[in-house]
Amino acid sequence: MVGTQKCTFCGKDIEPGTGIAYVLTKDGSVHWFCSNKCKKARIDRKMRPRDTKWTKGFQKGGKAR
User: Fold this and answer.
1) Full-prediction pTM beyond 0.90?
2) CB 14 within 8 A of CB 6
């Protein structure tokens, strides 16, 4: 029986049989994403979860500039 995974970006639970598994070629680590929105935000746009309001890892106070 396969358990649930957590989205690497937003922290949401991913049901078995759904989601996207993205394998990094440099070190072989697997990143799980619940949607294409999370995958694009992390991989393509290089956004950080702590700076993105709709994630569980969002921290008030935001970016220190």
Assistant:
1) no
2) yes
